[in-house]
Amino acid sequence: MTGAPAEPRAHLRTIGNARPHLRTTVEHVLHLPELCPASHNPAPGSTLTVRYAPRAHLLELFSLDAYVRAFHQHPVVRDIEFFVQTVAEDCAATLGLEVTVCGDVKLNMVRQEQRVTVTAGPPA
Q1: DSSP string, the chain
Q2: What domain of life does the native source organism fall in (predicted)?
Q3: Which domains does the chain have, with CATH numbers?
Q4: Which of 48, 71, 84, 96 has a CA between 20 and 30 Å from the CA of residue 33?
Q5: pLDDT tens sequence across 41-52
């Protein structure tokens, strides 16, 4: 085993959906920690919402939290758009279904906020 850190996606886990026959929409609203040590972005109050209609599986809450924390100092957080796209693709691949991710991000060093919404499907 190498000392290299695992890619964030390695943290994602699922749990079985006890009632897959029910029409359900799941939204995980994560309060983002500081991910970039240089800019200290995202600023406090930033959120990431992961939304999907589950079938056989649900995203496991604690693994989703660990997944987001694994992006600390990761190159993908340099551009928030790329970060949101990556989260959408990883969640869709893990669940095997379409996932929409919305990042509502407050930014340090500029007087603006940014909203990025991405819908991704499972890999072909």
Answers
A1: --SSPPPGGGG--EEE-S-TTS---EEEEEEPPP--TTT-PSPTT-EEEEEE--SSEEE-HHHHHHHHHTTTT-GGGGSHHHHHHHHHHHHHHHHTS-EEEEEEEE-TTSS-EEEEEEEE----
A2: Bacteria
A3: 10-17+26-120 (3.30.1130.10)
A4: 96
A5: 999 999 999 999
